[in-house]
Specification:
α9 links the parallel β12 and β13. The chain folds into three domains: about 90 residues, MurE/MurF, N-terminal domain (Udp-n-acetylmuramoylalanyl-d-glutamate--2,6- Diaminopimelate Ligase, Chain: A, domain 1, 3-Layer(aba) Sandwich); about 200 residues, Mur-like, catalytic domain (UDP-N-acetylmuramoyl-L-alanine:D-glutamate ligase); about 140 residues, Alpha-Beta Complex (Protein-Tyrosine Phosphatase, Chain A). α4 packs across α11. With about 450 residues, it is α/β, with parallel strands linked by helices. The longest helix has 16 residues. The radius of gyration is 24 Å and the shape is globular. It binds adenosine-5'-triphosphate and magnesium ion. The site of magnesium ion has 5 residues, from α4. Magnesium ion binds next to α4.
């Protein structure tokens, strides 16, 4: 990218404090990431980014946005004065997007956004120059950041759109103006903020606010909260599902490392377990077809996809046991699906599960944790480790339904004790699944088991 201060000023409707024109070649809001020639964007969060401008200058920033008192602005680099640096950052992203004009694909949903984004990019990259959200940069800061880091000449831009509250996806959709949008699933994530599954569906449907009128919307066939909300839309609607919907898959074989399935008599495979990952793959397929990709290209894109870490990832324990690590985030839908998937997979030894609190579930939290009992039984699972406060609901439910199943509960402070207990029990031929909210830090348990 090449932005002169005059262009930035126009794009963000700001005022340039310095006289000589400067060109910037990159944009960063973290002063530590600034390299020579970058524009610094001081954002206001828990810290005020303005306080780090000297660090940005030290690292080579040639210009900065500025919304504090102009009298305190630095004098050695170009300064573009704006009312709100985040809004200016977003406006600059809009400007760059209009200038580059790639087709934009937007992915939202309660679970599976990152995986679906990775799969969609892998498919579209078989034919087009693509760029996608890096990691999980899916909010009002991450989205403009992604756009501004898109290489020139990108033909298809795949954006993950996340939310905690109603209204947030609208902002992202209006900024990115997608040509194609997809909703992976309506779950219970963030029900604390939103109130009900209906409200969650409304919030996900905000992805259509900026969607091109002649664009495509991809939704799960068996989610009536979505199918009943799309009737009045002008866009093409495509539905997908496991043996349901317009794009309907049959699962042929599921192993630890791969799932084989067919759609319209063509076979496909993904290097991941779980029927939910087939659903994610169907979205990538629908989008690939919309952009004219053939069966072979879609096959290649799905078979060789590289997904972002710790989302249903197989690892080896130090003693050789198989670890299914899914510790990046958790909510009831995802935890239930992972347990169902794990219970079906072959293991030479026993199946163990380590389940930690799922955060932000609001008033229903205890009951939602308890409901996981429907995804556990004393035939498929031999030992259950529960970690945290909210998960006590499940402890009670398990004791009630499977009185002889070995269930161990540990409080938040007792993580090391839990690790020691698991290590003492885990045998080389066992398989162990770990799932919980990121905030519970199960990644430490995974790492300790890998040692
Ligand atoms: P976040 O909100 O943290 O960005 P995300 O929506 O990007 O999450 P992923 O990171 O792709 O979701 O997947 C997180 C976990 O959700 C997976 O490891 C898996 O357990 C579960 N998951 C993935 N896809 C689906 C799906 N289609 N339906 C339900 N659960 C899913
Ligand atoms: Mg994500």
């Amino acid at each position: 990218m090449n932005f002169t201060t005059t262009i930035i000023k126009k794009a963000v409707q700001g005022e340039v404090l310095t006289e000589n024109e400067v060109t910037v070649t990159g944009v960063e809001f973290d002063s530590r990431k600034i390299s020579a020639g970058d524009l610094f964007v001081p954002l206001k969060g828990t810290n005020d980014g303005h306080e780090f401008v000297s660090k940005a200058i030290e690292n080579g920033a040639t210009a900065t946005l500025w919304s504090n008192d102009p009298a305190t602005a630095p004098e050695d680099i170009a300064v573009i004065l704006v009312k709100d640096t985040l809004q200016a950052f977003q406006a600059l992203a809009s400007y760059y997007l209009l200038e580059e004009n790639p087709d934009v694909i937007a992915i939202t949903g309660s679970n599976g956004k990152t995986t679906t984004k990775d799969m969609t990019e892998s498919v579209l990259s078989q034919k087009f120059r693509t760029y996608k959200t890096q990691g999980n940069y899916n909010n009002d800061i991450g989205l403009p950041y992604t756009i501004l880091h898109m290489p020139e000449g990108t033909e298809k831009l795949i954006l993950e759109m996340g939310m905690d509250h109603a209204g947030e996806i609208s902002v992202l959709s209006e900024l990115a103006e997608p040509d194609v949008a997809a909703i992976t699933i309506i779950g219970e994530a963030h029900i604390e903020n939103l109130g009900s599954r209906e409200k969650i569906a409304d919030a996900k449907m905000e992805i259509t606010t900026g969607l091109a009128p002649d664009g495509l919307l991809v939704i799960p066939a068996d989610e009536h909260l979505l199918t009943e909300r799309v009737h009045s839309l002008s866009q093409t609607i495509e539905t997908f599902g496991i043996q349901s919907g317009e794009l309907s898959a049959s699962i042929l074989n599921e192993t630890k490392g791969a799932t084989v399935f067919s759609v319209d008599d063509n076979g496909y495979q993904i290097p991941l377990p779980g029927s939910y990952n087939v659903q994610n793959a169907l979205i990538a397929m629908a989008i690939g077809r919309w952009f004219g990709l053939g069966t072979d290209e879609i096959f290649q894109g799905l078979a060789y996809v590289q997904v972002t870490q710790n989302r249903t990832q197989w690892l080896k324990a130090g003693n050789g046991a198989d670890i299914l690590s899914d510790v990046y985030n958790a909510n009831p839908t995802a935890m239930g699906l992972v347990l169902d998937t794990f219970a079906k997979l072959p293991t030479e030894g026993r199946r163990l599960a380590v389940l930690a609190d799922m955060l932000e579930l609001g008033e229903e939290s205890y009951a939602l944790h308890a409901s996981m009992v429907d995804h556990i039984n004393d035939q498929d699972f031999q030992e259950i480790y529960l970690y945290g406060e909210e998960i006590k609901g499940l402890k009670v439910a398990l004791a009630d339904r499977y009185p002889t199943l070995a269930v161990h509960h540990f409080n938040k402070e007792a993580k090391q004790q839990m690790i020691a207990t698991i290590k003492a029990s885990l045998k080389a031929e066992d398989s162990i699944v770990l799932k919980g909210s990121n905030g519970m830090g199960l990644i430490e348990v995974v790492e300790a088991l890998q040692e």
